[in-house]
Amino acid sequence: MKCPACQYNGTRVVDSRPAEENRSIRRRRECEQCTFRFTTFEKVEETPLVVVKKDGSREEFSGEKVLRGLIRACEKRPVSLEDLKKIVYSIEKELKSAGVVEINSDDVGEMVMEQLSEVDEVAYVRFASVYRQYKDITVFIEELQDIQKRTKK
């Protein structure tokens, strides 16, 4: 590591500690020549997860966007924000551990609905009705019947 003061190519680490909620390491360094002290940060370089939308456009996966959709679906429902954040975290973790670089928005929606159905059935139906864009009441009723069958098992 080059010293930012004198450009000497030798520094030593004086102190290291976790930073950014253990997602990086903060290091205090000292130049071996001029004794100038400075701070560096070390973090994992992550490959961005890209979502392919229905119209073919691509955008980076946004956990905040998924969380906003979940919050909307859970309005006036007894579901904590922590539970919703756990769903988002779980989906992100599953996608990253699978090594996925691109995923269809449909697949993300299905993952959200799968986890939301275990947390709150009403919120699940709300999310599904918007996500799947039900055209008529018969499709909606079929979805409700599927939920009833699952809960009876």
TrEMBL record:
Transcription listed as a keyword: yes
An example Gene Ontology biological process: negative regulation of DNA-templated transcription
Co-factor binding details: Binds 1 zinc ion.
Domain of life assignment: Bacteria
PROSITE patterns (UniProt xref): ATP_CONE (PS51161)
Protein name: Transcriptional repressor NrdR
Domain ATP-cone residues, every copy: 49-139
Chain's role: Negatively regulates transcription of bacterial ribonucleotide reductase nrd genes and operons by binding to NrdR-boxes.
Cofactor: Zn(2+)
Family: Belongs to the NrdR family.
Species, as recorded: Sporosarcina psychrophila (Bacillus psychrophilus)
Signal sequence extent: none
Gene (UniProt): nrdR
Keywords for the protein's UniProt record, in alphabetical order: ATP-binding, DNA-binding, Metal-binding, Nucleotide-binding, Repressor, Transcription, Transcription regulation, Zinc, Zinc-finger
Molecular function in Gene Ontology: ATP binding; DNA binding; zinc ion binding
Zinc finger (unnamed): 3-34
InterPro entries: ATP-cone_dom (IPR005144), NrdR-like_N (IPR055173), RNR_NrdR-like (IPR003796)
